[in-house]
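Researcher: Checking consistency across runs. Here is RimJ/RimL family protein N-acetyltransferase again:
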Amino acid sequence: MIIREITQEDAIELIKFQKQLDNETKFMLFEPNEREIDEIQQSKMIMSFLESNNSNIFIAESDHRIVGYLSVSGGRTKRIRHSAYIVIGILKDFTGKGMGSELFNAMEQWRLSTNIKRVELTVMTNNEFGIKLYKKMGFEIEGIKKNSMIVDDRFVDEYYMAKIY
C-alpha cells in the first residue's frame, strides 16, 4: 500500500473509488448513485486543492487502485484560513488495517508546512469505528449536530470533532 498526495491523473480512479465507497457504507454523505461528477469536474476539483496552500487530498493505493482517501479543505477567508475540514473514506476490505492512521499521519506531516492550527470533521454518532480512529488521532468531541442526516429514513446525529495544534 502506498500513501501519497493526489495528482490530476487520479481523477477517473477517484470517481470510481468514491462511487464504490458510496455503495459500501452509509457513513458517507452520498447515497449510492447520487454522486454526479465527471472526469473534467473531478480534475478541476483536484486542481483547486493542489493550487491551495491549505488544502490537499491524500490517497491510499493498492495495486494501482485508490482504496482510501483523506481530503483537507482549508478555510478560504482570513478568519478561518488556520482551520481545515477533513473527510476520510476507506473501502470496506481495507478498514481496520492501519490505513486510516497512515492517511492521518500523511496529513499531519503536510500540515507542518501550512498555517493550519485546527482540523475538524463531523462523524455520525453511530460510527463507532470512525470515532475510535479520530480519538486515537487526537480529535475531541466538541458538540452534537442533532438530526444532521437522514439515513434509511431515520434521523442521525453527528458529532463535531476537532484537533487543535
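Researcher: Does this match what you'd expect to see?
Model: One thing to look at in this run: The longest strand covers residues 140-151.
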